[in-house]
Amino acid sequence: MPRHPLTLLVACALVATVAGAQPRPVPVPELARARDPGIVTLLRHARAPGTGDPAGFTLADCASQRNLSEQGRQQARRLGEAFRAVGVKDADVRSSQWCRCVETARLLGVGGVQVAPYLNSFFAGRGDEAASTQALRAAILAKVDSRRPTLLVTHQVNITALTGIVPAEGEVVFVRATAAGTIEVLARATVP
Question: What is this structure's pTM?
Answer without folding.
Answer: 0.83
